[in-house]
Every structure is written in structure tokens, then in C-alpha cells.
Amino acid sequence: MTTFLLRRAVGAVWVVVGVAVTVFLILHLTGDPAAVMMPPDATTEQVAAFRHNQGFDRPLYVQFGSFAWNALRGDFGNSLRHGEPALGLALERFPASFELAISALLLAIVVAVPIGILAAVRRNSPVDLAARVFALIGQSAPVYWMGIMLILIFGVQLGWFPVSGIGGIRHLVLPTVTLALFTMAQLMRLTRASMLDVMQSDYLRTARAKGVAPLVVLWKHALRNAWLPVITVIGTELVTLFSQAVITETIYSWPGVARLAVQAIVDRDYPIVEVVVILAALAFVAINLLVDLLYASLDPRIRYE
Amino acid sequence: MTTAAMPAPSGLDERVRRKPFLAVLFSGFPTIVGAALVGIAAFFAIFAPLIAPHDPNLQNLGGAFKPPAWLAGGSPANLLGTDDLGRDIFSRIVWGARVAAIVGLSGVAIGGSLGVALGIIAGYFGGIVDDVIARIADVQFAFPSVLLAIAVVGVIGPSLTTVIVTIGITGWVQYVRVVRAEALSLRERDFVQAAVATGASLTRVLLWHVLPSIGSSITVLATFGVARAIILESALSFLALGVPQEITSWGAMLADGRQFLDTAWWLGLFPGLAIFLTVLGVNLFGDGLRDALDPHSR
């Protein structure tokens, strides 16, 4: 158990380092940052002065070294556009993204898991068919189109919900549903498949043959095992959720961190891009470590490994 | 892998295996629907100049915001209506299929070959090589692909090539895990060991013995990869970081139409429907392909 967790923790540190290196290289290898950051009418001397000022004329590994050292102390530099510390700007936007992501994830789980289970238990019933059709549509419909259609129907035509900005719970409804749909479809499909797998297993047949009550079989024998792959996927699903959030936040003008990142990329505001990507990676590995812990406590096979 | 060595049980399994592959593939209704949807998109993509009634970029400000032909104010000349610049939406959707096909297929070709090559190497050689590739894959998994794609496109500048390469390099990781696992188990199989024992070169073993045996998994992954590529391309174009303006893309059409939702809903509905139906078709076809290639997956 300790080895398992230790290995996972080392892996998590590596992932964050790897992401930091990747984002740094993408931003610094693909052209001279000074040239793209300065206004087009800047003189050569001005660009050179700026380059020197920002340290872009040093060797790449020196630049990365100082970037990494400062980042470890929480200093990602100032935003080139806003002039304030990039970390502060990103953290300011984090709660809004967190609120949206968590409500979307919860909505997805609350809808997908029970329906997935029901679909597996009542295989080939109308519920199963409906669940499969829904999963297929949810996985095929692009999130930005779903968002636009939801705005068109519930915002513009019916006028039930506000379609942009942050506010009370009513502002949260459409973005949450938009963001949840894809994950919901994935989870529904996976829960159903996982339950079907478990229900065909020998130990379930044995339990039934022994005369264990059907609900007990379902609850104690089937669900406990079917949960495992579902929990694993919820962890990795968060990255997908972040990718989808980039678009959802843009459509609904949601003041989250993903939208900040998109704007920063367009503005070439490197410090912001770096801090957002690294924070996202940190959140990802933290949640996956939690998932591993949960997994280990649910599956004795891992504890004894 | 034990199932393959067992004699085929009498009944369904044997009959399925004896049927021609295409008959098995098209035995399910969803697969037929999927193939039909993909077929229509492919037909549009190949014959775009012949099918599209108008030049997709021809502006006609006098004829802007014309509703679809079946609504009041619509005209048969513009089947799905016109956009804010008077361009014919149906023609733009037909041409958009070509971009979707180019991006889908080349993106998968790049990501697929990269992922399959790395997966085979990791699985077959194991050891440090395997560890390094696995660690890189872990990093890629933690990096939201849309953000990575936006960063690359944002820095290099949008062009068709950038979009294709970006989709390729964000997609390889989907292949690595599956291919690695299969290569790992193939390494121990008798026919691979026999090839090594008879002195076949490494390249020959990998290309002639290992690669063909994982062909069916790759085919299935590549099919879903096309769906992923189409969605990612239209997402990038939607954020104005995709293909340049003069190339007609479904995602860009959707982004254009977004601001006219309350007055001209058809600008947003049809391009999205085109993406949705194409991706749905690819997914349905991919499901059918997986079931046909691997009878045990059901």
C-alpha cells in the first residue's frame, strides 16, 4: 500500500515537472517572445532592450532554471497585459471555474451512474435503449454546439435562464448542463459496461445460486466491484472537463480560469499561460492521487500488492 | 489470449466467424446508419465542387440572412438559407466536409503513426524505453488537449498545416497504451519467438509480425480518432484559432452564427448538425467495426 502510494506520488511530481517543461518549451521555442510581445512599430533597439530586460537573451536552460526556481516560490512573473502577478490573477479566477467544474461533475455522476446501473440490470429494456442513445448523442455532439443550442432554446426562445456571466444559481444552470453532457455520456456508458461485466462474473452467479436476495447481490456484490473502473475514469475525466471548460466558459462569458488562459494565449501573455497550465496540472495530479487513495481503500487487492 | 487457442465452440461463435467480414460488419442496423452518415460526408468531401450550387465564399450582401428554402422568405436557390454575408449555407457545409475529412484523416495519420510506433517500441522493448514513453504519455494525459492545441496554434499562428500537426501530436497518446499492452503480450507469443529464433531482423519482426497482429485495434482506435480530430478542429476554428478564414470550416461557421442566434438560428443549427451527424456516424461505424473485429467484445 505504501509502495503503491509512494510510486503514485513520485509519478505525480514528474507529471507536474513534465507539464511545466512542456509549456515552457512551447512558449519559448516557437519564436522570439520579445518579437511577438512588442508592438509591431517598436524599433530594433526597443525590442533588444525589452529582450534583455525580460532575460530572453540568456540561454534557454538558464531561463528555465530561473523560471522553475521562481515558480517553486510561487512567483510566475507579472502578467504582461495586466502588470499584476500572474499567480494572483489566475487564483482569482479559480473559484468560478471550480464551481462550474464541480457542479458539472456532480450532475454527470448523479445522472449517469444510476441510469447506467439501471440500464445494465434491465438490459435491452427501453431504459437501456434510451441510455445507450443518450450516451451516443452526448459523445458525438460537440460541446460548443450543445451550448449554442441550449442558449437558443432555453435562453433566447423560452427565456428561462440567463445566457452569460456569473450570478446566482440560475446563471449556473446552462453552463453546468453544457459542460456535464459529454462526461455524463462517458460515465453512463462506462457504468453500464462495467456493471454488465460484473454481472456475468462467476462470483455473482454463485451469490445468486446461494439464494442471496437480489438487492443484496446488486448492492454488496455487483456495485462494489463495478465502481472501480468508474472511479478511475472520474479522475481522468477531469482533464476532458477542463478542455471542455475552455469552450463552455467562452460561450457563456464565464469568468473562469480557462477563459483567462484562452485570452492570455491570444494576447501572448506567457506568464498567465504558464501559471494556468501548471495549476491545472497540479489540480489534476492532486485529484488523481485522491482517486488512487479511494481506489486503494475500496480494492483490497491493491492494499496487499 | 487463451480463447484464441481453444477450439471454437459450436453455435453462434463459429457461424459468425465463417461469415464474410463485411457481412458481419454490416449485420447491425446502427453500423449501417453510421456507414451511411460517413458515406454522405465523404461524398460531399470528394465531390464538393460538383455538389455545391454556389461558391462557398461568394458574398451577396443584398441576399443576407435568407432563411432555409421551406420557410417564408426562403428561396430554392439557397436550400439551407444564407449567412450574414449572404453566403450559401448549404454550399459552405458541403465544402466544410472537405476540411473535416482532410483534418480528420491527416490528423489521425500523424497521431496514429506516432502513437503506434511509440507503443510498439515501448511494449516490445520494455525497460527504460518503456518507462520514458510511459512518463511522457502521463504528462500528455495531464495536459488538457484543447489548451495544448490552442497554445501551439496561438504561438505558431493558425494555418491548415498547424491545425493538422497539432491534432496529430495531441492524439498520439490515445494509441500508445493500447498498442503497448498488445505488443507486450505479442512478444511472448510463439510466432513472434519463432521469427526471432529463425534470425528475422528486428525491423522485420516488428513490421511483419507484431504490427499486423495489432491491426484491428489500430483500425478501431483510428476510427474514433477521426471523430476526435473533427471535433477538435471545429473547436479550434470556433475559437478563431483554427483554419484561416478563407477555408470553409464547420466550426468557424458555428462561431460566425453564434452572434445571430436570436434572429437567424439557422446559422448556428446547420453547421453544428453537420459536425454532430458526421461524428455520430464515425462513432456508430467504429462501434460496429470493433464488434466485428473482436467477437468477444460483446
Question: What would you note in describing this structure?
Answer:
The complex is a heterodimer of chains A (305) and B (298). Chain A is 80% helix and 0% strand. In chain A, helix 5 crosses helix 8, helix 5 packs parallel to helix 12 and helix 10 runs antiparallel to helix 12. By secondary structure, chain A is an all-alpha fold. The mean pLDDT of chain A is 83. Chain A is flat and about 85 Å long. Chain A folds into 2 domains: 2-72, no CATH class; 86-298, MetI-like fold (Orthogonal Bundle). Chain B is mostly helical and 298 residues long. Chain B has one domain (22-297): Orthogonal Bundle (MetI-like fold), CATH 1.10.3720.10. Helices cover 71% and strands 0% of the residues of chain B. Chain B has helices at 2-5, 12-18, 21-25, 29-46, 48-51, 89-125, 127-142, 145-156, 160-171, 173-187, 190-197, 202-213, 215-238, 250-258, 266-293. In chain B, helix 13 (215-238) packs parallel to helix 14 (250-258). Chain B is elongated and about 75 Å long. Chain B starts with a helix and ends in a 5-residue tail after the last helix. Mean pLDDT of chain B is 83; it is low at 1-10. The chains are: A mainly alpha (305), B mainly alpha (298). Chains A and B meet through helix 1, helix 6, helix 7, helix 10 and helix 11 of A and helix 7, helix 8, helix 13, helix 14 and helix 15 of B.
Give a quick precis of the structure:
Chain A is 80% helix and 0% strand.
Please describe the topology of this protein:
The complex is a heterodimer of chains A (305) and B (298).
Chain A (H helix, E strand, L loop, with lengths): L1 H28 L3 H5 L6 H11 L5 H13 L13 H36 L4 H15 L2 H15 L11 H31 L2 H9 L3 H38 L5 H11 L2 H29 L1 H4 L2
Chain B lengths: L1 H4 L6 H7 L2 H5 L3 H18 L1 H4 L37 H37 L1 H16 L2 H12 L3 H12 L1 H15 L2 H8 L4 H12 L1 H24 L11 H9 L7 H28 L5
Helix pairs in contact in B: 4-6, 4-15, 6-7, 6-9, 6-10, 6-13, 8-9, 9-13, 10-13, 11-12, 13-14, 13-15, 14-15
